[in-house]
Amino acid sequence: MAYQGGFPQQQYGGGYGQHPAAAAGYGAGGYGAYAPPPQQPAVNPEIQNIFRNIDKDSTGRINNRELQQALINGRGDHFSDTACNLMISMFDRNKVGTVDIFDFEKLYNYINQWLQVFKNFDRDASGHIEESELTQALTQMGFRFSPQFIQYLIAKNDPVNRKEISVDQFIVTCIQIQRFTDAFRVRDTEQKGVITIGFEDFLGIALSMCS
Amino acid sequence: MAYQGGFPQQQYGGGYGQHPAAAAGYGAGGYGAYAPPPQQPAVNPEIQNIFRNIDKDSTGRINNRELQQALINGRGDHFSDTACNLMISMFDRNKVGTVDIFDFEKLYNYINQWLQVFKNFDRDASGHIEESELTQALTQMGFRFSPQFIQYLIAKNDPVNRKEISVDQFIVTCIQIQRFTDAFRVRDTEQKGVITIGFEDFLGIALSMCS
Ligand SMILES: [Zn+2]
Ligand SMILES: [Zn+2]
Ligand SMILES: [Zn+2]
Ligand SMILES: [Zn+2]
């Protein structure tokens, strides 16, 4: 994996526990939950520098294209539009499709947490996640999926049949699974793994997740 | 609505019936269903010209960015990434994220059908679809949604509260609704408007629709 724009690979150095889902922001303070503080705290000078490097047009906001330019996956490709849109939308307090420096500080930490999670699961350090690695990752995140479903997840991301997914695909897949799981869980009140759902509710969930 | 790159607004001239969903490719020969013929028929010379104008890099394939450049909605904005990705993915036989001229001929006709559908429903010719127009459109497509759901559909596309959606948002919304409806319908065997669904199946549907 390579990072342009100064994203360090090891910012956290293992300072959190064994549960990658918590590290990835699934626990307290997960996405969408925070409100801007009344007074913005000062942003770490290192992050200020990184922000300025990424904000090529110096508008004081980072857009999807700028973020894509800054992030490169293990195939040497820029992160996908989908991945950057998804992550920006999680931290863009003003809902304008771009992040300011305060949003960016949180986004930056969030991306680094994901990179660390990815690295932990990429046991052979190939820069990709293969089927067995994805199975382990999702199991450790608390999911029990069939082998067919894991294969489907990979195939969905992998039209040329490399049988692996890149870091940006991994991040998007995990975030989408987590969101749909949350939506499912609140309706699965008896924890049966089966829900009964009406048409509009179903559509509403489905559409809310698609960008 | 404005079209760059020579998309005529009126190619079809009302040559189809009253049901916009059929016009929009929901009927026979809908998306994803066709296979390439063994021998490619000749492409209409007008469409060849349009193709060459859009294919700025002359690679013989139109990518998302090129299509976005060619399509402008009633706000003067280019069609969204999401809209162009979605439409390209429907006609990209080789699953490479771009269309060749044979794919493009079908894509071009498909887009023109949608533009015509949009124009029919934009009764005040504002270039946008407002709530009452969207209600009528979806009703004519055979849906019975609550007013709250229609408002949700608009709000989802309309962060700045203009209370209207643009043509590209309309196309994406209709395609997504139609796909989720198809997925719902095959599970709603008794036509009750309610289904019982397991976790993996639910996730699979939801993920398959998100790019
Ligand atoms: Zn910028
Ligand atoms: Zn690996
Ligand atoms: Zn091209
Ligand atoms: Zn209108």
TrEMBL record, chains A, B:
Regions that span the bilayer: none
InterPro entries linked to this entry: EF-hand-dom_pair, EF_Hand_1_Ca_BS, EF_hand_dom, Peflin/Sorcin_CaBP
SUPFAM superfamilies registered for this protein in UniProt: EF-hand (SSF47473)
Keyword Metal-binding: yes
Gene3D superfamilies (UniProt xref): EF-hand (1.10.238.10)
Pfam family, one: EF-hand_7
SMART domains per record: EFh
Keyword Calcium appears in the UniProt entry: yes
Keywords recorded for this protein, A-Z: Calcium, Cytoplasm, Metal-binding, Repeat
EF-hand domain: residues covered: 42-77, 109-144
Location of the protein in the cell: Cytoplasm
Major location (coarse): cytoplasm
GO MF annotation list: calcium ion binding; calcium-dependent protein binding
Cellular component GO terms, alphabetical: cytoplasm
PANTHER family xref list: GH27120P, PEFLIN
Name of protein: EF-hand domain-containing protein
